[in-house]
Design goal:
The protein has 346 residues and is of the alpha/beta class. It folds into 2 domains: 2-160, Rossmann fold (3-Layer(aba) Sandwich); 163-344, Up-down Bundle (Dehydroquinate synthase-like, alpha domain), CATH 1.20.1090. It has helices at 38-44, 66-78, 93-105, 119-125, 163-180, 182-189, 193-198, 200-220, 235-245, 249-264, 271-283, 294-301, 330-344; strands at 2-7, 10-15, 32-37, 53-57, 86-91, 112-116, 130-135, 138-145, 150-152, 307-308, 311-319, 322-329. The strands form 3 sheets. A 7-stranded mixed beta sheet has the order 1-2-9-6-5-3-4. Strands 10-11-12 form a 3-stranded antiparallel beta sheet. Strand 1 and strand 2 form a beta hairpin. The longest helix has 21 residues, at 200-220. It is globular.
């Protein structure tokens, strides 16, 4: 299955149930440079032999920084990359983010595509056109919005995905269910990771469903001036957990969604929603408690891009499938975090 979506920032072709072995249908390998990480290259380097060059960066979120950007830029110059050279990001969210950022700014723009290899990349990180680089503790402080020419979804890559990375991806799937899709929330509650691992067709359909939701929101608000902010559900506190506690992105988002639920209850959401979400997160091997330093978390939160005066924008649930945006005072955020962390210590 494939289709194109035209955004203000460019048209993207979505290639579901695709195969990397047929990538030459979408680009000329001899005019294409792959950007990937050391882990993916170690597993799949035999697939990359026909390409102009392969630039390998160290695996890990800590390498999504400007030092890596400068290193890639130098290697692009050495490989005589120009504005007609295509960049192909192959890997998880870190690799695709960096590829999109570089392609946006190198010689003021060059064509690029993505082949996400993680579940998180397939359902979320590779979609939407956001590209960013971390500066110190601040995630994606430098960034662009630029759309790839195509995204190839090859679920064969999921065959080497560790269990923790399956959980990592399902945090974003659960996010979509909480925000927009009560039916999906029910389906997830009736299944588990093993169900999806065993059925490639069901997993492919799930990926396409998540991509449809994200595309619908991004089409309405590509620059994140309104509706697209909803996609930050779980990410405001989640980014702080990820930075301070050094845990995977999806695990941090899971905790962030629970913090948002604590705040949502103050605005009329039923307490039963928090219990339903907590059960679902546990079902998909995601954390629901953590020990952390509240002061450190608040230090990161107060530098968040979504800060507005003495508060920060949080996405709160009305119920499963419905959400809206509230500016929450930092004092209230601190109370929610302290309550949550206290619960996590017992």
């Amino acid at each position: 299955m494939q289709y194109s979506v035209t955004f203000p920032g460019g048209s993207v072709r979505y290639l579901f149930n695709g195969s990397f072995e047929h990538i030459s249908q979408w680009l000329n390998p001899r005019e294409c440079i792959i950007i990937t990480d050391s882990h993916v290259n170690g597993l799949y380097n035999q697939l990359f032999t026909d390409f102009k060059a392969v630039i390998t960066i160290p695996a890990g979120e800590e390498h999504k920084n400007f030092s890596t950007i400068l290193s890639i830029t130098q290697q692009l110059l050495e490989h005589q990359a120009h504005r007609k050279t295509t960049l192909l990001g192959v890997g998880g969210g870190m690799a695709t983010d960096i590829t999109g950022f570089i392609a946006s700014v190198y010689m003021r723009g060059m064509p690029f595509g993505y082949v996400p290899t993680s579940l998180l990349g397939m359902v979320d990180a590779a979609i939407g056109g956001k590209n960013g680089v971390n500066i110190g503790l601040q995630k994606n402080l430098l960034g662009t919005i630029a759309q790839p020419k195509f995204i190839l979804f090859d679920t064969a890559f999921l065959g080497t995905l560790p269990g923790t990375e399956w959980s990592n991806g399902f945090a974003e799937v659960i996010k979509y269910a909480c925000l927009f899709d009560k039916e999906l929330f029910t389906e997830l509650a009736e299944r588990d990771i093993q169900y999806y691992k065993k059925d490639n067709a069901v997993t492919s359909a799930l990926i396409a469903r998540c991509a449809d939701w994200k595309n619908k929101i991004v089409l309405a608000d590509e620059r994140e001036s309104g509706m697209r902010k909803l996609l930050n559900f779980g990410h405001t506190a989640g980014h702080a957990f990820e930075t301070v506690c050094l845990i995977p992105h999806g695990h941090a988002v899971a905790l962030g969604m629970l913090v948002a639920c604590r705040l949502s209850a103050q605005y009329g959401m039923s307490e039963t929603v928090t219990g339903q979400l907590q059960n679902l997160l546990q079902q998909y091997s995601l954390p629901t408690t953590i020990q952390a330093d509240t002061d450190e978390l608040m230090r990161v939160l107060t530098m968040d891009k979504k800060r507005d005066g003495d508060g920060v924008d949080f996405i709160l649930l009305k119920e499963i499938g419905k959400a809206d945006i509230h500016n929450i005072a930092f004092n209230n955020v601190r109370q929610a975090l302290a309550s949550f962390i206290h619960a996590g210590n017992h």
